[in-house]
Design goal:
It contains 8 helices and no strands. By secondary structure, it is mostly helical.
Length: 188
C-alpha cells in the first residue's frame, strides 16, 4: 500500500517570516523602493509618529534586493524549524520581536543617518541560539564559544575594516540577543 506524502506547516513562525519577507521585498522592488521605505525600513523619524514604532518591528521583513532576501531566508529556513520545535513558536516570535526592536533602537540612537532593513539580526540571533540546543546547567557549550568567535568576531572585524552596506551592528546585536535568550532558556 502506498502512503501519500503531504506537505506540513512544520514551523509556522519561520514560514510566516519568510512569506511576509518575500512579499515585502517584492512590493518594495516593484514600487522602486517606496513601499520598502514606507513600511519595511527603520530610520530616524519623529518618535511621535506611529510609523516609527511600526517600522521598529517591520524592518526585518524588508530586504534591499533578492540576493539579500535569499541569503537571510536560507539561514532562517535552515535553523528556524529546529529552534521552533525546541523552544516553541511563542518563544521564537519573542526572539524575532526583541531582536527587531533592539536593533531598531540601537540604529535610531547611534546611527541616525542609516536606514536599516532585513532580517540579518534575526539570523544571527538564530545562529547563536542554535548553539545552545545541547546546553546543560553549569556548562558552556564549545559550539557557542566557536560560534561567538567565528560569526560575531567576523562582524566586529568587518565593522571596523570594511565599508559596505552591511549592518554589522544588527548582526552583533542579534548574536548577543540569541546568546542571552539561549542562556536564559537553557539555564533551568
Amino acid at each position: 500500500m502506498k502512503r501519500k506524502i503531504k506537505i506540513t506547516m512544520n514551523a509556522p513562525v519561520v514560514l510566516g517570516l519568510v512569506g511576509i519577507s518575500f512579499i515585502a521585498t517584492v512590493l518594495s522592488l516593484v514600487t522602486g523602493g517606496f513601499i520598502g521605505e514606507l513600511l519595511f525600513m527603520t530610520y530616524r523619524w519623529p518618535l511621535t509618529s506611529p510609523m516609527t514604532w511600526i517600522r521598529a518591528f517591520t524592518h526585518v521583513f524588508g530586504h534591499a534586493d533578492l540576493a539579500h532576501l535569499v541569503g537571510n531566508m536560507s539561514y532562517l529556513l535552515l535553523l528556524g524549524p529546529l529552534l521552533e520545535e525546541k523552544y516553541s513558536s511563542k518563544t521564537l516570535t519573542a526572539v524575532i520581536l526583541i531582536t527587531a526592536f533592539v536593533t531598531s533602537l540601537i540604529n535610531y540612537v547611534f546611527f541616525p543617518q542609516v536606514a536599516l532593513c532585513g532580517a540579518s539580526g534575526v539570523v544571527f540571533a538564530f545562529i547563536v541560539l542554535s548553539s545552545f540546543t545541547s546546553f546543560k546547567d553549569g556548562e558552556i557549550p564549545l559550539t557557542f564559544l566557536l560560534v561567538a568567535v567565528f560569526f560575531i568576531g567576523q562582524q566586529i572585524v568587518d565593522g571596523l575594516t570594511v565599508q559596505d552596506n552591511v549592518s554589522n551592528m544588527a548582526h552583533i546585536t542579534g548574536g548577543v540577543i540569541g546568546g542571552w535568550i539561549g542562556y536564559k532558556l537553557n539555564k533551568k
